[in-house]
């Protein structure tokens, strides 16, 4: 068995060590990641609302890493506790040129939906002189500490939406139709244990 020379103040980490065996407690990189999108045409029904209709992507070459989140009525439930990176991308258009200020937010609940808090938000504006159906893009990113999968959940929320003219481009990344090419997506990655 090889011996390790210790200095009076500990290991010299600049040295090279011959090793065979198993190292534990060092972490192993990402263990869970998945991508979602809104599957059908989306027109807001109210000025402030939860975005619904999410499904896991079916893009060619996509493979989920680990377990997927579960989804119901606009709310995502994590498969495990940990520090999670959450990002959403929204593509908004207008059917008629109107002034509009709107926002997209990532909300979290610590108590299974009794209370919701904004983790992060991004705001956009149509000036009324924009070209009809020209897209505007919003990306929102947050870190979410999940201590309890029964209670810590996440959703995507729109506020200030123009019900008369706002539309969100949606569809699978598999779609050859440019108007439905993955316009609204969400990505989830577990970064570390808590």
Please provide a written account of the structure:
By secondary structure, the protein is mostly beta strands. The chain has a single domain (33-192), classed as Sandwich (Jelly Rolls), CATH 2.60.120.40. The protein is 0% helix and 42% strand. It has strands at 33-38, 49-50, 54-56, 70-72, 75-77, 82-94, 99-109, 117-127, 136-146, 153-159, 166-168, 185-192. Strands 1, 3, 6, 9, 11 and 12 form a 6-stranded antiparallel beta sheet that branches. Strands 2, 4, 5, 7, 8 and 10 form a 6-stranded antiparallel beta sheet that branches. A hairpin with a 7-residue loop joins strand 7 (99-109) and strand 8. The relative contact order is 0.28. The model is unreliable at 173-181 (pLDDT under 50).
Strand/helix succession: EEEEEEEEEEEE
The helix content, as a percent range, equals: under 10%
Name given to the CATH architecture: Sandwich
Span of the ends, CA to CA: 36 Å
Beta strands, count: 12
Output the CATH topology.
Answer: Jelly Rolls
Strand content: 35-45%
Shape: elongated
Kindly give the count of domains: 1
Q: Give me the number of helical elements.
A: 0
The largest sheet, given as strand count, sense and whether it forms a barrel, is: 6 strands, antiparallel
Over the alpha carbons, how many angstroms does the gyration radius reach?
Answer: 22 Å
List unreliable stretches of 5+ residues: 173-181
